[in-house]
Write a sequence for this structure.
């Protein structure tokens, strides 16, 4: 298996930075509130796929430039061309957008979204599939597919959103396409916490650094099991977690934690 480093990733359609063990993906088209294009969709998908092989990057922060997170698919660059496509081309596009969030869910690194301003459409889906979401009171989260004549069932929204905010609240958001305020997003469990706009990215990065300094093999296992256990019966989930925990008990980090405890010291984890 070929290993890469975070520095090997060189996307053209968004910004990518690695600071220590934390990678930051910034959607950077602030003049248009950071919409996605066909190319940026594909590059974000490919980046999360590649991160499975980047051992030096332990956590990822996703954010947007210029006071907004992401306004979704670009109206002119994506929606305009879509109305001229035939069914095979449309299906190729919708499956590609689904592959983006699948790649997020199976990459081993925990993903933290730092959200300010507009977080809409595919941007809301990217935030939804992040492991944690830090937002601001000024954030506006909208699954606005219905407002362009489409169903709310896009990029896993009908499956994942009810598990985060509840079935009734998810139904309201997906049927109406209305914006969820930052305060609502916190109260409904979509945001993990609210931060001042000038602190949200730094707060997300600090949390990412804390995770990156932890037992990252175990974090990857936790993320994997959070994903795998959704369709499992409880007894199957308990058995699967027994297997996963036994694997983690073979790691050097588990031994380091015990030895540090015996010395009454804080363990220093190395992720192996």
């Amino acid at each position: 298996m070929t290993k890469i480093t975070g520095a090997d990733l060189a996307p053209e359609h968004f910004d990518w930075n690695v600071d220590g063990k934390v990678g930051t993906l910034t959607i950077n088209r602030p003049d248009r509130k950071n919409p996605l294009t066909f190319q940026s969709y594909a590059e974000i998908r490919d980046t999360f796929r590649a991160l499975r092989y980047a051992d030096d990057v332990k956590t990822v922060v996703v954010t947007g430039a210029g006071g907004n997170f992401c306004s979704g698919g670009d109206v002119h660059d994506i929606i305009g061309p879509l109305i001229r496509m035939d069914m095979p081309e449309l299906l190729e596009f919708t499956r590609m957008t689904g592959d983006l969030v699948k790649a997020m869910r199976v990459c081993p690194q925990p993903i933290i979204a730092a959200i300010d301003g507009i977080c809409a459409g595919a941007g809301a889906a990217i935030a939804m599939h992040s492991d944690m979401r830090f937002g601001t009171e000024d954030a506006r989260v909208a699954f606005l597919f219905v407002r362009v004549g489409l169903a709310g069932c896009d990029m896993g929204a009908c499956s994942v959103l009810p598990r985060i905010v509840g079935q009734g609240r998810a139904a309201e958001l997906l049927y109406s396409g209305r914006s969820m305020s930052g305060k609502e997003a916190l109260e409904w469990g979509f945001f993990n916490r609210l931060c001042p706009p000038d602190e949200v990215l730094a707060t997300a990065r600090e949390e990412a650094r804390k995770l990156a300094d932890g037992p990252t093999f175990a974090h990857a296992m936790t993320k994997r099991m959070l994903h795998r256990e959704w369709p499992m019966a409880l007894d199957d989930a308990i058995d699967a977690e027994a297997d996963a925990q036994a694997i983690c008990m073979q790691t050097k980090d588990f031994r380091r934690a015990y030895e540090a405890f015996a010395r009454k010291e804080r363990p220093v984890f190395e992720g192996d």
